[in-house]
Amino acid sequence: MDLGSLLTGAISDTLDVSLPLFRVELTLAATIVLVLLCRMLPVLRRLDSGLVALGGVAFALWYAWCDLRGLPGAPWPALAAAAVPASRELFGGLLIFDPLTAFIRFLLAGFLVLYIPFTKISGIPDREDGADFYTLVLGASLGMCLMASSNHLLMLFMAVEMASVPSYALVGILKGRKASSEAALKYAVYGAGAAGVMLYGISLLAGVLGTCHFPSMAAELGSVVGESPDSFYAAESAGPIMVLALGSLMLAAGLAFKLSAVPFHFWCPDVFEGAAAEVGGFLSVASKAAAVAVALRVAFGLGWLGGEEMAGASALGLADVRHFAVYLIGLMAAVTCTLGNLAAYGQTNMKRLLAYSTIAHAGYLLMGVAAAVALRGVDPEGCRRAVAAIAFYLGTYVFMNLGAFALVAVLRNRLRSEEIAAYAGLVRTSPGLVVAAAAVLVSLIGLPPLAGFVSKFLVFASIVEAIAVAAERPLMLVLLVVGGINTVISLFYYLRVLKVMTFDPPPEDYIATPSAVWLPGALITALVVPVVVLGVFWSGLYAYAQLAGTFAS
Amino acid sequence: MSPADTIAQPALWPLSLIVFLPALVAAVMALPVIPKAREELIRWITLATTIAVFVLSLWMAWPTLFGAVGPAQFTVGEAGMQAVVKRPWIPAFNIDYLLGVDGISMPLVVLTTFLSVLACGASWPITKHVKAYHVLFLLLETGMLGVFVSLDFFLFYVFWEVMLLPMYFLIGIWGGPRREYAAIKFFLYTLFGSVLMLLAILMLYFTSDLRSLSPEQLVASHVVSPALDAAGQADAVAVIRSAKGPIHTFNLLALAQLGQLPNSPFAAVNLWGMSLETWAFLLLLIGFVIKVPVVPVHTWLPDAHVEAPTPISMILAGVLLKLGGYGILRICYPICPGAGLSLAWLVCGLGVVSMVYGAFAALAQKDFKRMVAYSSVSHMGYVMLGLGVWSATAGNEFRWDAWAQGVNGAMFQMLAHGISSAGMFFMVGVLYDRVHHRNLEECGGIFNRMPVYSGLAVALFFAGLGLPGLCGFIGEVLVTLSSWNYSRVLAVISAFTVILTAAYILWAIQRVYLGGEYKGPHGDHLTPITGRELAIATPLVFLAILFGVAPQLIFNYVTPSVNRQVETLADWTRDIGGKPPQPVAGGPVPAEVTGVR
Prior knowledge:
The complex is a heterodimer of chains A (553) and B (597). In chain A, strands 1-2 form a two-stranded antiparallel sheet. Chain A is mostly helical and 553 residues long. Helix content of chain A is 76%, strand content 1%. With 597 residues, chain B is mainly α. Chain B folds into two domains: 1-340, no CATH class; 343-579, no CATH class. Chain B contains 25 helices and four strands. The longest helix of chain B has 35 residues, at 401-435. Chain B is globular and about 75 Å long. At the A-B interface, helix 12, helix 16, helix 17, helix 18 and helix 20 of A face helix 6, helix 7 and helix 8 of B.
């Protein structure tokens, strides 16, 4: 193949195949350019950057929706859009477009459409910082979209960095606030460390396997692991296997940092406490969704090969890889969940409490990931249901957690405090907000009839399904027990917030800063109503989650 | 599923309204359409709602009172599920909006709606945050009614949990001095039980397979609607039985059919040396007995009762405790009969221990309300014993009548206790409203100051004592008689417990109502009983006497359904030869499936 035909092939692949399926990211990139341009041109300087960003994001949402609708097997044929392929590698295998990509992109775009009005209403950023803030948010979101669709370790690394670096700056957006700068520094240092470790792990993996492209890696991995002798300690096998294990642990460390999974969670409470509630909401929801998608991508990408290639020693080797991944993810999930919930007990600051709640929820999500990987080789239908459970969880998590952070922001504007004690007796003055808080917090506990219950139910259902078909049964039993106990103990600290709001008398010197009621009220309503509705009528969202689950086919 | 959508379901609206009308009114009331200050209006709206729901449930349960029997109404004396409502809810998980009533649930529904009316009347003295109180109260009513009528396990669980939050706030905001502690304790205990229940639900769901049921069983369990014509039924059955993979179900009736198959899928799976059936039974049992409650998981109850405001105590004692007994009867035994048979000793033992412990604890109390709370523990012990006496194996005769006697007695005891304990709590509350203390030692002589009140109260306490001629007697005597066939020791103990019951109740009556004159604080507040209080107490006393002399009023409803269930299970016991099935040793899972070398 000469250079000319290679070039023509690459050009036609890029223009005809990749770019049309890349339009969501392109729209986000164009919006970033537009926001920056608006600031440079004096004519456009009076334009509100938030509105520009919102417009661009709305376009991105529309494209993401069309991509999701166009997938084969999308529910409700009446809404059909132009067909897109079920699974397609983009840009020579660096990215992949499949139902999971489409779902996570749609989730992220939908999140941004809710998030930008939220920041406009709650007043952070101010008008001066607007352009910076929205550029950073959109840039990080672009990175998260790439994370969800990465099909290559290098791309994955770049996407993770693209999502992380703007986040560091976002945490420090409250200029002149010491806590904010400190949090940003801590986040950046920690993030840099995690990125270094991850890059090292990637180079180890690439060195042994000779490639960074997931399917090629899986094929290599299958034969390397499958053909090595049974005994782990045998001298001749220890070399490559040890390096692979070390490399994947380092890769897992980098991803665990993004997920705020224990033991890489230390940044999370400090960052959330130091940053504005708006930034916390962004990190807690969008970043989490992308990180979970990446975890799925890596575990499935390295642990499974489609079709006929799965045979003989290679298949057994990949089964070992999955076994390793399930235990790694599962144990991390159990520890993350438990530690997050236990540490949340002692918190007095609402944002810190939500940070630990975020950590705990990362644990529940990872339990779902572990179940999905465990079911992969045993029961493909069950595996799809497990992925659907995770997708559904992420979908409801957008409303639950963004709702929680929106409440913190609205209450901060009203009470000038983010301490839980400052919420004492809030029910006397703002009963509506307390009802909303009750819905959000109880949904985070996971009680019916709220969306959080359904998510938890689905994840637990996947674990039980794994037990029923005997996929990694001992670990799954442990996860089930740990998940159940955690649900009970999480009750205490979520309810404590509600207790303070309702049972406790308001402070004597209580002065509510008068603030506009309509817009925050509408915002909170828009976030909380889905939490209730999705708890009762969840067939619709679940149908799309099932669609996302078909990526594991 | 699609043909079922078009079948006329006459009970859809009546049954749904009974469940959701309170929640609907609560939602409207929560909106700012009614100003907070209109407290009187809010109270009347709530009372009207509870009365409407009560009348509706009565219309269903007692059709002859309202003229001709309609298709949506309850036919007394029929054993099967009636007024079944089925609408697909979450097709992806085969979850249906499946409601229905039979002789076991119908009386409990009426008890709930009736006590809700009385508790609403008893809420008049509540002056703190009246609107929020009544909104939560109505939400609680929806949760309780939903549990009794849902036949889908998922739906059942949703309603089961819906009750928790309103109850937490009702105790925590309107309760006594230690209300926060009591509220969180109640919540934690119950949530722990419900999480275990959720795990059991999921285990049963993923092990179930509708394909192993016969067409008749599919129709009987309303998986395939009996209202379809023969061809429609055959089509629906064919769709299920020709499915490639297993079809899981949350349908309680279908799960029961599966559990009673000779080769029950639940008995075949082995987990850690016990069958899945046993695990599920234990997990569900823990969830339910926390609610009943039995010793040793009863400790939330005295706290919750003492701290809760009077109307909420009435609901707690009258309805919430019954949910546990109902769950054991409706879910544990039919779905996991093998485990029920082999663990009958556990259920009966827990019952007797609660009975005796509750009675001794009641004897030791100084607080009037705490004493009544422990009497509930003791009385619910009879319910457990009655439900548990699996005497079908006695002498290898496989006779069901002795066991049926126990279960009927337990059902009667639940209903009777619903009346007598709600009444006792109300009577304690009436006294507390006046003198603001509940110390048994600082009372006495109330009879002289409040004769009408004292007369009614003593009648209700005698009903709780189990005096023949009052409602408490029938259940206790039936349970004790039937336990003779199961274990003579337990029968003797439960008979002797009656003496303890008599002791603590008579002693309490003596200390509170008898004696020369009242010596405690606030003596000048001992005003005669008001009309509102009289209107709440009188129906309770009336029913306590009525059911004591005419127990068939309840048995007409209860017995056909209970007898059928017990007979089925006794036959099942005979078919398996009186020995519970054992799980296959080593488990059915071949090693290669796990994919691990």
